[in-house]
Design brief:
With about 180 residues, this protein is mostly helical. It has six helices and four strands. Helix 1 packs antiparallel against helix 5.
């Protein structure tokens, strides 16, 4: 099975409806829907595009979770850390806690909704345990390889920028500050 398999997309809709899996807002043209990787596809989380890790969220929640994904402050995985910011374990300056307070200002309601949402995600992921386990097992190996890839890409970009700069004569005394060496 792949994430593009209709059985998988049907399971996403069955679990979360046509709503953001995090905040519950209906996904439509005014609430921009995005593909959400529960464990982010980044160097910290090393989430993969596999069944059980892909669902739909609103763009705002996706962006908020991306900030938390880099830190994984409250859990081992991105979605669970994001949904654990109920205001009880972080300092007063926590931006993720503030985000959830903006959606559910009342403490008990926020705690209840975030707990229920974590349970709903766990139930959604249960049938895809083999993919989740494989992804978790591959995480350490992939993390090393991804770090190497990021460094190589960064070095490539640095080298290419240096070539471009070397190809341009920067004469700050001339009103035409950029002259290409042709």
């Amino acid at each position: 099975m792949t994430v593009s398999d209709t059985r998988y997309t049907d399971s996403v809709v069955a679990a979360f409806g046509n709503s953001c899996l995090y905040c519950g807002k209906e996904l439509n043209s005014s609430v921009s829907p995005v593909v959400e990787h529960l464990n982010g596809m980044n160097r910290a989380s090393v989430g993969l595009h596999v069944p059980g890790n892909v669902a739909m969220a609103c763009k705002v929640c996706n962006n908020q979770k991306r900030n938390d994904d880099q830190k994984l402050l409250l859990a081992e995985n991105g979605w669970e850390s994001f949904l654990s910011h109920d205001g009880s374990r972080c300092g007063p300056g926590c931006k993720t806690c503030a985000y959830w307070r903006g959606i559910w200002p009342e403490d008990s309601q926020r705690l209840q909704v975030l707990t229920e949402t974590r349970q709903r995600v766990q139930a959604f992921q249960a049938p895809y345990g083999q993919f989740i386990q494989w992804s978790a097992g591959a995480r350490d190996t992939l993390r090393v390889k991804i770090e190497i890839l990021y460094r190589d890409c960064q070095q490539f970009a640095t080298d290419e920028i240096a070539k471009l700069v070397a190809d341009v004569n920067l004469n700050f005394t001339d009103s035409r500050t950029l002259k290409s060496r042709d």
